[in-house]
Amino acid sequence: MRNYGLGGGIVKRLSATIPQDSTHVLYTDRYFTGIKCAEYLLDNNIYMAGTINNNRLSNAQNKLKSEKGLNRGEWDEVVRSDDKMCIVKWKDNKSVTLLSTCIGSEPVSTCKRWSKQEKKKIDVPQPAIIKTYNASMGGSVIDI
């Protein structure tokens, strides 16, 4: 479990109880998301999407635009050469980075965000991974 870190090791151990005969998606926060953990889950037919710390991005961090290089509602995406994993950095008030093995930035939708300059809610472009993550995080669905 050392290769996965503490959070990734926990995900690896708990995911062993998930049946591999159907498709499952795990949504995790930054404490449990890592590239090696996502690869392990993918090898076991389990998809993953979650926020990830920049220090866990290895070489992908150099390929993403910096926070200063993005304006509100803009994003940058890096896709692995086999198209099985992507990392999306999206800027709202601050940037957030997500790793996914199941969804990328398309299709793009909009979300309402408060604008300090305009003093009202405005439409901000939002990649699909952000919308899906926000809708799925904070709860669990278990079929027994």
TrEMBL record:
Identification of the protein by name: PiggyBac transposable element-derived protein domain-containing protein
Superkingdom classification of source: Eukaryota
InterPro entries for the chain: PGBD (IPR029526)
Pfam (any one): DDE_Tnp_1_7
Domain PiggyBac transposable element-derived protein: 6-139
